[in-house]
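Researcher: I'm preparing a figure for a lab meeting and need a structural model of a single chain. I don't have an experimental structure, so a prediction will have to do for now. The sequence is pasted below. Please return the structure as tokens so I can convert it later.
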Amino acid sequence: MVKQPKPPSSTVYIEGGSGPGDRRRQGFSKLLKDPDNKRSPSIKLGGSRSKAIKLFCDSPDADPVLLMDSECALLDPDPVQHLFERKDIDAARAALMEAKKQDVFLMIETMENWLIADMECVSPNNFRTAVLVRIRVNGNVESISKAEAEKVVAECLPTNQSKGDRMQLIEKVDPQVLSQRASEFARLLKRLHS
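Model: Understood. Here is the structure written out token by token.
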């Protein structure tokens, strides 16, 4: 029997962080790993929102994906259109013109929302606040505002943790739990693993 070659994994461009040694890649790589074939997508941290968009749009990779914070409630159900509505991407607006909905994904409203989805794993000794907030929104972490998500995460995690430290904590989130509590993440996994 001839083994079929594995298709190339996707490259995921994420806003935030930068530099080849950035340890935050590990967190997203583990979170987005395909459990069936044990392959992780290549993670590239793009720095600013505009820079991440430009890197994604100019990508030489065969299968690029863009992952960004929505920064607010969705202005449009299409993630590309949502980004067009935001003023903070003006420098990258022209580059984004060719992007397709199936290649652009949003952390609604921020990555902190994803941490809240599985705070029991992220901060097992101090997660009560996050669980209460999640219960209040019926488990759907995408309906929690950016301000509230950041406040909850700040209350549950040590005060000396930077945004970069939080990005690394994403590796502790169970992808199955997050898929149930964030439909945009479920859409991302389907795109990466099919």
